[in-house]
Amino acid sequence: MVNPTFQVKKRDGFTVGLSHTLEEEVVQMENTKHYAYFPGCTLKNKALDLDNYARASAEALGFTLDEIPEWQCCGGEYPLAKDEIATKLSSVRALSDAQKEGKDLVTLCSACYNVIKQVNNDMQTDEDIALRVNNYLAHDGIEYHGETKVVHFLEILRDEIGWDNVKKAVKNPFTGKKIGAYYGCLLLRPGKVLQFDDPENPQIIEDFIKAIGGTPVLYAQRNECCGAYTALEDGSIPQKRTQAILGNAADMGADFLVTSCPLCRYNLLKNRGDSPLDVIYFTELLAQALGVKEAANA
Questions:
Q1: In angstroms, how far is CA 94 from the centroid of its own chain?
Q2: How far does CA 240 lie from the centroid of its chain?
């Protein structure tokens, strides 16, 4: 008997019922949540792995990253000047695109997350900024007032998928590996705006490490700045900061560090000197744990 709920029309004109397995696949596709995805510039060149592993991992966990068309660079750092409007326009365009699609906006890069979420807060809370931004964008047919929800990929794992479900999906656990979380500053601050985690005692990456079967290593420097933004003014600052971070993590027994920030990773590896610690994107660990790393590299 043909199941009236699941029917498909073949090319020859006959309508037949789907198999039970295919029915489940159709239901799964219909229930898959789609996010508007802002990859950012670095994930399209120097941080391709961060992007590829995230896409593969998302599909394995039942959600999809739909890249926003014609997105523009967010600027890389949030402009503090109250009268600086032009550098916020690219973020608002991305936020508006997500709103039109009726989707939350997700990003992976710590800097992109920081900038876009702070700009979104401006559009919600600062009438003067919102007015001037919308005046600029009116000729593009855009009027936006902060309606889009901005989330980081890690927040999806924590708040939507749930750590228990991530753990259930793991095929290659990092059993016996001592992993240090490196947050840096952009994921956590300003805390009242980002509301990502406790800026003084964050837990989200440690919970991620537990979910993929590793052992989190707590160390004092995990949420301190790596100094990357000072490199052009004084190259000794990021060198000292890197040595302090990696030295502290090594002293506490970490085998390697995990991060979501491309700039932090670049800076820590560039200035690590003789430290044996590697710094790895969290999406690479996730893809490996889920058994989709090879497919992501194909």
A1: 15
A2: 27
Helix (H) or strand (E) run with residue 12 in it? none
* Alpha helices for 62-189 (secondary structure H): 89-101, 110-125, 127-137, 153-155, 163-169
Q: Which residues of 232-268 are buried (b: 16+ CB within 10 A; e: fewer)?
A: eeeeebbbebbbebbbbbbeeebbbbbbbbbbbbbbb
**pLDDT reported for residue 25:** 46
b/e sequence 166-203, b meaning 16+ C-beta within 10 Å:
beebbeeebeebbbbbbbbbbbbbeeebbebbebeebe
**Beta strand 256-259 with 278-281: parallel, antiparallel or unpaired?**
parallel
Please tell me the distance from the alpha carbon of residue 224 to that of residue 236, in angstroms, as a whole number: 16
Nearest to 272 by CA among 229, 243, 240, 235: 243
Residues in the chain with pLDDT < 70?
A: 1-30
Give the neighbor-by-neighbor strand order of the sheet with 256-259.
215-217, 178-181, 256-259, 278-281
Report pLDDT for 18. Answer: 36
Q: Residue 2 has what pLDDT?
A: 33
- Sign of the Cα pseudo-torsion (113, 115, 116, 121, in order): positive
Backbone angles phi, psi at 247, to 5 degrees: -65, -45
Amino acid code (one letter) for 108: L
CB 170 within 8 A of CB 211: yes
Query: What confidence tens digit (pLDDT) does each residue in 49-72 have?
Result: 899 999 999 999 999 999 999 999
Contact 287, 57 (CB under 8 A): yes
| Residue 254 tokens, joined | 């970490």
Angstrom distances, CA of residue 35 to CA of 89, 101, 106, 174: 21, 9, 6, 28
